[in-house]
Structures are given as C-alpha cells and as structure tokens.
Amino acid sequence: MIQNEEMHDEIGDNHIGSSAKNPLRSDAFAITDDEKIEKIKKDVHNILETLGMDLTDDSLKGTPNRVAKMFVKEIFGGLNPSRKPKASTFENNYKYGEMLVEKNIIVYSTCEHHLLPIIGRAHVAYISNGTVIGLSKMNRIVEYYAKRPQVQERLTMQIVQELQQALGTEDVACVIDAKHLCVNSRGVSDIESSTVTSEFGGKFKEEQCRREFLDYIKLDTKF
C-alpha cells in the first residue's frame, strides 16, 4: 500500500498523465449538479474544519457553498457534456484556402494532480478543406476542455481532436504555453518556468507548414 502511495505521489509530483481522456467514472452524471454541490459542500466544510478553521466566522460561513458551486458550475464545468459548445460550421464560400490562426486564447485550467491553477495561452490554427468555424467557437472549445481537472498534454490533444471532428479535416494545430501553480507556488517553487505543449495534425506535421504557424504566434520553440 505504501509503495502504491509513493508511486502515485511520484506520478503526481512529476505531472505525468495516465490517460488521453479525462478519467471519468461511468456514473459521473448519475446525480444532478445541485446534489453534487450539496455533497461537495459537506466535504469542503470537513476539510476546513480539520485544518482548524472556525467556520462560525462570518468570512468563512459561506466558503463551503461557494467552493462547491465553483467546482461544479465553473472551474470543473467542462466535465459535463451538456455544457459542450455547439461547433457551428459554415461552407467556405469565399474559398479561403490558407492557414487561419487564432492566437493568444486565454487558458484557465486546473492541474488534476494538485488541483491548482494552470494559466496560459492557447494558439490554434486550421486549414479549411471546404468548411470554416466561427472564431468565437474556437475560444469556447478551448474553454470547455480547460474547465476540468487536466494535464496540459491531454488538453492540447482534445482541442485539436474536437476541431478536426467539427471541420472534417486533419489539418489542425494547437500550441499551449502555460504556467502551472503546482510548480510555481509549491514543490520546486519556480515562478519563472512555463510549459509548452503542441499537437500537429495533417499538413501541420510538415516542417514548412508547422514553421509558418510558429512564426505567426512568435514562438521560437523547436518541435
């Protein structure tokens, strides 16, 4: 048991993902959001009480409820498939056939190893094969997959896969550059470091196309 705990700690401390999909149980949505909030509220109350906090204090009285609502409806809201944005696509009537890049999309996510924030920017691109997607939908797709316990590699892959499916093309790319507070504020406490991940599909696997994309986003990282 101790060996397993040590192994799990090592995986978490080194931020190693175990699955390409978010590890959800089959009964993840067997109860409603309101029921989840009630259960989480009690758990947060117990955590704070165990830490020695005085939950009769006016400043803390509402904290368990606030945290529970935040978990279910906000920072982990992307776990619920009912919140998935509709990826509205349109025919490429103006025959634009070059690369389209949406850069500097703000990423707010949560590391699944320590439940601390991941904060950064996503840069997304695609080449139309006859279909285009609304620009705001690209932001919403990033937001949807970010709002769940995540590892950055998985988030990058999920964004690309979702856009590939919506657009009907493999020619999609994503680069994320983000700070992990589990690295910046604890452990090694390196406040300067950031993590860069990438996923290139279709034509973006070719050096020239990939380099053009990286030039657009001004990221001089070797892949």
UniProtKB/TrEMBL annotation:
<keyword id="KW-0378">Hydrolase</keyword>
<keyword id="KW-0554">One-carbon metabolism</keyword>
<dbReference type="GO" id="GO:0005737">
    <property type="term" value="C:cytoplasm"/>
</dbReference>
<keyword id="KW-0547">Nucleotide-binding</keyword>
<dbReference type="GO" id="GO:0008270">
    <property type="term" value="F:zinc ion binding"/>
</dbReference>
<dbReference type="InterPro" id="IPR018234">
    <property type="entry name" value="GTP_CycHdrlase_I_CS"/>
</dbReference>
<feature type="binding site">
    <location>
        <position position="182"/>
    </location>
    <ligand>
        <name>Zn(2+)</name>
    </ligand>
</feature>
<dbReference type="InterPro" id="IPR043134">
    <property type="entry name" value="GTP-CH-I_N"/>
</dbReference>
<comment type="pathway">
    <text>Cofactor biosynthesis; 7,8-dihydroneopterin triphosphate biosynthesis; 7,8-dihydroneopterin triphosphate from GTP: step 1/1.</text>
</comment>
<dbReference type="GO" id="GO:0006729">
    <property type="term" value="P:tetrahydrobiopterin biosynthetic process"/>
</dbReference>
<comment type="subunit">
    <text>Homopolymer.</text>
</comment>
<dbReference type="GO" id="GO:0046654">
    <property type="term" value="P:tetrahydrofolate biosynthetic process"/>
</dbReference>
<dbReference type="Pfam" id="PF01227">
    <property type="entry name" value="GTP_cyclohydroI"/>
</dbReference>
<keyword id="KW-0479">Metal-binding</keyword>
<keyword id="KW-0342">GTP-binding</keyword>
<dbReference type="InterPro" id="IPR043133">
    <property type="entry name" value="GTP-CH-I_C/QueF"/>
</dbReference>
<dbReference type="InterPro" id="IPR001474">
    <property type="entry name" value="GTP_CycHdrlase_I"/>
</dbReference>
<comment type="similarity">
    <text>Belongs to the GTP cyclohydrolase I family.</text>
</comment>
<feature type="binding site">
    <location>
        <position position="111"/>
    </location>
    <ligand>
        <name>Zn(2+)</name>
    </ligand>
</feature>
<dbReference type="InterPro" id="IPR020602">
    <property type="entry name" value="GTP_CycHdrlase_I_dom"/>
</dbReference>
<keyword id="KW-0862">Zinc</keyword>
<dbReference type="GO" id="GO:0006730">
    <property type="term" value="P:one-carbon metabolic process"/>
</dbReference>
<dbReference type="GO" id="GO:0003934">
    <property type="term" value="F:GTP cyclohydrolase I activity"/>
</dbReference>
<dbReference type="GO" id="GO:0005525">
    <property type="term" value="F:GTP binding"/>
</dbReference>
<feature type="binding site">
    <location>
        <position position="114"/>
    </location>
    <ligand>
        <name>Zn(2+)</name>
    </ligand>
</feature>
<feature type="domain" description="GTP cyclohydrolase I">
    <location>
        <begin position="40"/>
        <end position="217"/>
    </location>
</feature>
<protein>
    <recommendedName>
        <fullName>GTP cyclohydrolase 1</fullName>
        <ecNumber>3.5.4.16</ecNumber>
    </recommendedName>
</protein>
